[in-house]
Amino acid sequence: MTDFEKVKSYLIELEYNILSEDIEEELFVVEKEDAGINNLIIDCEDEILIIEQLIMELQVDSAQVYKDLLIKNREIVHGAFVLAEDGKSLIFRDTLQLKNLDLNELEGTLNSLGLLLGEYGETLINISKLK
């Protein structure tokens, strides 16, 4: 079984809806609405599984907002907030080793994102309204 097939079987077992998959690029776009997860990108890159969820486009360039996000990173069990190269796109990102990836490890990252969105969602909505 390839890493791509293994990841797909885990996503199915975890009851994620696979919106699209690109076998050549070894990439999935998934969702799990009850966890608040939409258009999550899961990419098998060589030896690493990259998991990214666009959270929002930041409308404000504020040291306080960046500081608050970095402080929140300390509380996130798996993954972290990151900025895309444009400095405006706030993304949740985690990377896992594909070689030894198991269901529990992937589930931990995905649960971490769901928990983050549930617990910190209102704050993120408030940040998104800042201009």
Structure at a glance:
This protein is an alpha+beta fold. The chain has three helices and six strands.
Verbal overview:
By secondary structure, the protein is an alpha+beta fold. It has a single domain (3-129), classed as 2-Layer Sandwich (Yope Regulator, Chain: A), CATH 3.30.1460. Helix content is 37%, strand content 34%. It has three helices and six strands; from the N terminus they run H-E-E-E-E-H-E-E-H. It has helices spanning 3-13, 63-73, 103-129, and strands at residues 17-22, 27-32, 37-45, 48-57, 80-83, 89-97. Strands 1-2-3-4-6-5 form a six-stranded antiparallel beta sheet. The longest helix has 27 residues, at 103-129. It is elongated, with a radius of gyration of 15 Å.
Helices and strands in order, then pairings?
Blueprint: H1 3-13, E1 17-22, E2 27-32, E3 37-45, E4 48-57, H2 63-73, E5 80-83, E6 89-97, H3 103-129
Antiparallel strand pairs: 1-2, 2-3, 3-4, 4-6, 5-6
Radius of gyration: 15 Å
User: Would you tell me which CATH topology applies?
Assistant: Yope Regulator, Chain: A
* Count of helix runs: 3
| Oligomeric form | single chain
Mean pLDDT: 94
**Strand tally, please?**
6
Tell me the strand order in the biggest sheet. Answer: 1-2-3-4-6-5
Shape: elongated
How much helicity do the residues have?
A: 25-40%
What string, H for helix and E for strand, traces the elements in order? HEEEEHEEH
Structural class: alpha+beta
Strand content: 25-35%
If classified by CATH, what would the architecture be?
2-Layer Sandwich
Largest sheet: 6 strands, antiparallel
CATH class division: Alpha Beta
When the domains are counted, the total is 1
**Span between termini:** 48 Å
* Stretches with pLDDT under 50, minimum 5 residues: none
